[in-house]
Design a protein that fits this description.
Elements: E1 9-12, E2 24-27, E3 36-41, H1 43-56, E4 62-66, H2 74-87, E5 97-99, H3 111-127, E6 134-136, H4 140-152, E7 162-167, E8 180-183, H5 186-201, E9 209-212, E10 215-217
Helix pairs in contact: 1-2, 3-4
């Protein structure tokens, strides 16, 4: 790319461990590097918003669906959830923590795989007879898959179990029930990445991290603990 006179790079959720040698902005990047600015969501605030919402509804046994290790947000988001849970006095039970996974070489990032992952983990939680009243998932599509598993098992959402997603994809509000989720301002993050790179190319100093705020969007999939 440098040989073709590229001036700068915008990377999306790309795990890099060394500087590309050009002014670079990474959306959902977490590694400070020379010439690299990372645009990230405030995972601490997002975790606090979601967990506080569930605690206020009376939930104490909460299941969690973690992201896959290949996702650049996984480590920081789980760190934030773990720390905020401790601050709020919420116990995270290991048997209620599942991780998005699959065979080597499988595309874990396709919507179809994510739906199946949420569905499979929903079934797994129910088969283990693990008592839980809420599920907080890594993304919306896995949340939708889990809801399908709960409904197929005869449970009601949110009367029997509440579900919270993450991202606020366009279809989240049209699900049945509509999905309570952490809104990730992806358009704002993209615009910030573009403007930051243009500023860098105009001589502005590098910043390691730029943080945008999340918002919890409360819809129909969360309600009082049974």
């Amino acid at each position: 790319l440098k040989d073709r006179s590229v001036d700068g790079l915008i990377l999306i959720a790309t795990a890099i461990r060394e500087s590309p040698g050009l002014p670079t902005v990474v959306v959902s990047g977490h590694v400070p590097l020379p010439e690299v600015t990372n645009v990230i969501i405030d995972h601490d605030a997002a975790a606090e918003q979601a967990l506080t919402h569930l605690l206020e509804l009376g939930h104490r046994r909460i299941a969690f669906l973690k992201g896959n290790v290949r996702n650049t947000d996984t480590a920081d988001r789980w760190r934030a959830i773990s720390e905020k849970a401790e601050e709020l006095g919420l116990e995270i039970r290991p048997e209620l923590v599942k991780e998005i996974g699959g065979p080597v070489g499988e595309d874990l990032f396709s919507p179809e795989r994510r739906y199946r992952t949420g569905f499979e983990i929903g079934e797994e939680l129910l088969a283990a007879d693990s008592r839980f009243t809420a599920l907080f998932t890594f993304n919306d599509v896995s949340a939708i898959g889990a809801i399908r598993a709960f409904l197929d098992a005869g449970l009601r959402v949110p009367e029997d179990v509440s579900v919270i997603g993450f991202d606020d994809i366009p279809s989240a509000r049209f699900q049945n029930p509509s999905l309570t989720t952490v809104h990730q301002p992806l358009r704002e993050m993209g615009e910030l990445a573009a403007s930051t790179l243009l500023d860098r190319l105009s001589g502005a100093p590098q910043q390691d991290f730029l943080t945008v705020e999340s918002t919890l969007v409360v819809r129909g999939s969360s309600g009082p603990a049974p």
